[in-house]
């Protein structure tokens, strides 16, 4: 069963979870869960059953507190090309700019972006906490933080603060 459906299960996981390593881990977890519950698989529907398990595993992963705490919307916008693997996007930018300069840029953002960005990036609140403190829906705060990170990336590039070899090929930091 693994050899026959491995590509399918990995594809389902990777479409929902862009991180290659996590998608591979979720693929393994899918087959382990399927093996434990093989007696519940409807005969002739193995493919659909495995795809559903894979999708559920990926969704569970995305809902986990660890994922929500470790990444915020827009992290990929701030990521620097050529940075050491596993380095957090904010740390990459801090190393290139300096904490004071980045803090100043965040505090100079116009509203509605400044407050949620300050709460999430500077004060280390979760998105849910920032939404509650701002009195805004969580999805609104996520979108505002994402857009703020894009604006910061554009400012950094316009001010030519990142060395050319560390810039992304897509025009963002």
Automatic annotation (TrEMBL):
Q: Which PANTHER family match?
A: RNA POLYMERASE ECF-TYPE SIGMA FACTO, RNA POLYMERASE SIGMA FACTOR SIGV
Q: Which residue ranges run through the membrane? A: none
Q: Give one Pfam family.
A: Sigma70_r2
UniProt keywords (A-Z) are: Sigma factor, Transcription, Transcription regulation
The record places domain RNA polymerase sigma-70 region at 1-66
Q: Which InterPro entries match?
A: RNA_pol_sigma-70-like, RNA_pol_sigma-70_dom, RNA_pol_sigma70_r2, RNA_pol_sigma70_r4_t2, RNA_pol_sigma_r2, RNA_pol_sigma_r3/r4-like, WH-like_DNA-bd_sf
Set out the biological process GO terms recorded for this chain's protein. DNA-templated transcription initiation
Protein family membership: Belongs to the sigma-70 factor family. ECF subfamily.
Domain named RNA polymerase sigma factor 70 region 4 type: which ranges? Answer: 119-152
Could you tell me the superkingdom of the organism this chain comes from?
Bacteria
For molecular function, the Gene Ontology terms on record are: DNA binding; sigma factor activity
Protein name, entry field: Sigma-24
